[in-house]
Specification:
6 helices; 15-stranded mixed sheet; Cathepsin D, subunit A, domain 1; globular; 32% strand; mainly beta
Length: 449
Amino acid sequence: MEAPRFIIISLLILLLSHITTTTPTTIILDLIHRDSPLSPLHTPNLTFSDRLQASFLRAISRQSRHVDFQTDLLPSGGEYMMNLSIGTPPFPILAIADTGSDLTWLQSKPCDQCYPQKGPIFDPSNSTTFHKLPCTTAPCNALDESARSCTDPTTCGYTYSYGDHSYTTGYLASDTVTVGNASVQIRNVAFGCGTRNGGNFDEQGSGIVGLGGGNLSFVSQLGDTIGKKFSYCLLPLENEISSQPSDSPATSRIVFGDNPVFSSSSTNGVVFATTPLVNKEPSTYYYLTIEAITVGRKKLLYSSSSSKTASYDSGSKSSVEEGNIIIDSGTTLTFLEEEFYGALEAALVEEIKMERVNDVKNSMFSLCFKSGKEEVELPLMKVHFRGGADVELKPVNTFVRAEEGLVCFTMLPTNDVGIYGNLAQMNFVVGYDLGKRTVSFLPADCSKQ
């Protein structure tokens, strides 16, 4: 069996004056699903159904963390992992990659109180290029005031408390980061050294890489180096979290910089949909505006005041709240406004000619149908985003075989912030242009990207 492989990815963030590239750079890297056979978190004795259920439970817990807005993410709740290499000589670090987080941090010695970590912990004293950052630096000022501690002006301290009572406390520092097996080295990259960390962090992981929209995040600080663009293509779960790896296992991919698939000569006639990002607080999250969803011939306006009528009035767009949903690669399921979800569920029941049954085993899905082993006919759905961006979702994006004989709808109701999860994004190239403040969706076979 091929040994687990990870593409080394850098933090590459902050203090970008030390990157000498004058033209935008493109970096293509693997994203390893945490339940993939390529992941050290993979548990071989679990079934595909077991892995699905664990992923769904993480999504539900993570959604409740977004509600509080007191934290960037649920620790270890992100679904994709990447390796970091930091210091001189390079020190490899495994971390969760997450679009719902800004701060990048890792456990560091000397640990006053660290959670158990199976791999070695980063020791700054072993790196000849390591430096603590004082409170006068831009990275320190990018921290929220409540998370920043400057009792000693020579050291920028930080404390993050998460919604499940997990926490990390430490200081900001800078060091050299190596990308892609020493092909690129970047000096003076800023990150958090966590010396007091506890809670629900995974023993296999060293920390978190922030891919959010705030000033402190990975992609924001890369800035012009990548043309303020990044994109990813996520494999369907059945390709990603099978029980055994194939001879040449496919992985999801992330691209920092221009993705050629969005050029007119590369889409092969396939039209991509582009919708504006909405500026809202906290700026960590990427906010989009859903105007309506179509099931069959029924178009439902995404509005709590109008959804009961299960109709769409093109002149009523003002009733749709701007930035009513967060797009998040780290949450598996999609969560929709509760009243709207009721109308959507009713439309699906009307459209699907199968016996509706309860999700007795998992008790998490609201809409399930009895099915045999054969393929079942399920409707296409179309999500209408602001700006005329219509994204057609196939059943792989909206339904899952939760167990033998049971097919369930993978969108759930919520009274809180909506989340457009990663199942709905699979087999799309999802491109973020932070300069133009847009997100684009291009249908694709992600196993070939």
